Amino acid sequence: MKFTNLNLGLITLFSFTSIIVSAQDGNLLDGVQIHGNFDLYAQQYNKDSIIGAPIVPEKSGVNAFTNLIATKGKFSAGVRLESYIPPVQGFDPRFGDETIGVPFRYASFKQDGLEITVGNFYEQFGNGMILRSYEERGLGLDNAFDGARVRYSPVQGLYIKGLIGNQRFYWQKSDGIVRAFDGEVQFNELISKWNESALRVSIGGSFVSKFQSGGTSSLDLPENVGGGAARFQMNYKDFSLMGEYAYKENDPTKSNHYIYKSGEGFFASATYSRRGFGINISAKSIDNMEFRSDREAGFNDLFINYLPALSRQHTYSLAATLYPYATQPNGEIGLQGDLIYKIKKGSKIGGKYGTTIQLNVSLINSHDREYYADQDPDAAVELLDQQVYIPEDQSRKGYKANLFNIGNEVYYRDYNIEIDRKFNKNFKLKGTFAFQEYNIELIQNKASTNVLARIWVLEGLNKLSKKHSIRWEAQQLTTGQDQGDWVFGLIEYGYSPHWIVTVLNQYNYGNKNKDLRVNYPTAQVTYIHNANRLSLSYGRQRAGIFCVGGVCRNVPAANGITLAITSSF
Amino acid sequence: MRNTIIFGFLLLSTLTFTVGCDKVETPLPEPAVLNLNDSITFPPVDSANLNRGFKKTYVEEFTGHKCTTCPANTKLLLAQLALNKDRMIVTSVHAGSFAEVDDFGGYPTDFNTPYGTLLFQNFTNALTPIPSAIINRRSFDNFNNLMIFNNATTFWTDPINFENSNTSADIALGVEADFIDSLDLFYIQVSAEALNDLTSTYRLLVLCVEDSIVAPQLDSEADESIYPHKIVTDYTHRHVLRGKLNSDQSIAGDPFISETISSGEWLDYKLNAEMPANVLNKENTTIVAVIVNEITGEVIQSEETHVHVVE
Predict the structure, then answer these.
(1) How many independent structural domains does chain B possess?
(2) What is the CATH number of the domain that holds B101?
(3) Domain boundary assignment for chain A
(4) Which residue in A38, B123, B142, B154 is deepest, having the highest Cβ count within 10 Å?
(5) What is the model's pLDDT at position A134?
(6) Cβ A209–B21 below 8 Å, yes or no?
(7) Cα separation, A78 vs B280, whole angstroms
(8) Taking a contact as any Cβ pair under 8 Å apart, which residues of chain A between 302 and 341 contact chain B?
(9) Residue B285 lies in a domain
(10) Count of CB atoms within 10 A of residue A277's CB?
(11) Are A179 and B118 an interchain contact pair (Cβ–Cβ within 8 Å)?
């Protein structure tokens, strides 16, 4: 199924403006607003075998995006042009099947609580455990729907949505069709007596179904796979509580070894927050909840749902890109706690400007599973992969698992503390320590025991004058596994409001292979002017993993120039 | 208006719920119980008759009864087979749109098999012209690195000739097959002798092929005065794949060699299986045994035998 081409997208936008033109009297384009943005990321590649940089015949890669959105009154329409000449390394080469095209275009109409969208759109029900389509450009992830969506609010406080469509699959569309329905009641809006109540309550429910032909498999594959979710949220003064439970019927896929077990997911989060203090505890358990519109899809392709991450999104390089956790949709159980406390300013410990302490703990394990086909999970999975009749598991449920039975296998541990203190008007210091245990065999498919890593980070900001500042980072990661120890240093000079010059280096000084004790220096210049940002850097890029919200992609090693431009209008 | 929209939503949600889910209780039917007779022995493979001198050329030809250029190309393939009958094995796999049954169009015979379709989907895509052939399921670096051959690329004659010229083999293979009519069962024995030390994993594929099935075929070379619309109603289809006899769903068959095997080691594989229901004349059936490298997917040896029907 070929995806929309450039002409089709532009036709959408021009048709929309034509409709406005033909439907109005007088100056027809009055009130039409056009806005959008532009985003370009380009890399040039040099040969660098020591860091394992792949040889790129084109010697460069460019990803470019432009959004154009036209709105007038109740109407809006938009297109997104994308260009990959060829895709930047680390992005799926299938993006390069077309050098330029319009994978996203839509027209929308909104009136009296009714909103109709035809074309491409993104949507999320609740936390996304049963349906979420979104774009995360940094991951090369875009599972937008192409079809139709209706949102309607018949009365204040009652919101219903329905949609049908195929999902984006690079420059094509998925074979599977997704149909979905969601309803939500905001009681404080619906019941006028509760409008001002401190207790705010909402509930919601969704049903999602996908259709995909069963093909010629010897298995009797369910062509229609349904799933549903129920959720609630309540807030009372400084306290909030939310929860969601999702269920999916038999959905044999390549990823779950074609088992017919139903999937389940549970997510709950409680937060208490007042001035200077906040605490959040979240719990999640998911089992066989990978839900895609194509049962053969892999990697980050064609996900219908999104499983919220229960690990901290680190921002410092060594913590963020060496051992970041990727959500395991086929099963995991976890708990995360976050505590933020600001020691009062003027106190003995807090100092003149106060001190903020943040504690975070993530614990993620396997489920306790009992396979039907064989006691040894590997042998059982091998039998399932052979797709043979298994007398002990005639209905191919695969395994027995309780959503709340914790297994022995540690997937991830992250204990971290961050202390942030402003010493005077011109100097601020932030210290972070993290201890991570990381199941590298599961997440990165590397044969190894779990990685135990300790990470220290110190970040300082010195304001030299009103316009001049220096920011610096010193990081160290120590581990006896994988690539061993790393250090990272960064100095950034800011000349407000336009210029930032950064020099950084990371060094794998603890690599057991002395030949791989390599430096990764980079220098970068950034220019910012209003809504335009341009940065140019040169250096080595370390191979690693880039994750957003528990969804990850591999970043290959590279040596060369990187150019990034963003602009909005 | 509001009521219409609410009604519409209710209708949509009801439809979504009702069409939304198929519950499957038994994904794979329980295999039929084979009524074996222990007193019947598997036909032995005579080690003296094994071919040790070369790798046979196993050709899988993708074709269809509505493929107008297929007969001409099949003719060339059969001519090549006739000249190299000890070195070549041919299986005709009817699959894809050209193999669809079309009662009204004059093509009532269903030559499709689940395994053939799986194979076709695995090796071809929407742009692959038919007829096509794969040769020992490998690509040929001396033929533009191609794996699938047809008139749009390199035709299959030269790569087959190239493959027929090899003078060594990693494994020698023999197959014997009895069909016990009273039990409606095959008793098949495959034996192999390693000719070199092998360290990879290999699978064994056992196929049932039926020869000389008379059924309509579109043929661009047919005389329209005899065959209106060029549909040759009495066309003889050769070497037609009727089914895979291994129970394993892999396109490469059952696990056969999973550990290191040394030169000179001998392996036996025994299989009982029912005659595929689509076979029209069991006297015309042959059993094809194929050893496939599980890692590379390449065929390393193949052998065939005519089925001996025991009344």
Answers:
(1) 1
(2) 2.60.40.10
(3) 112-274+285-308
(4) B123
(5) 95
(6) yes
(7) 60
(8) none
(9) yes
(10) 12
(11) no
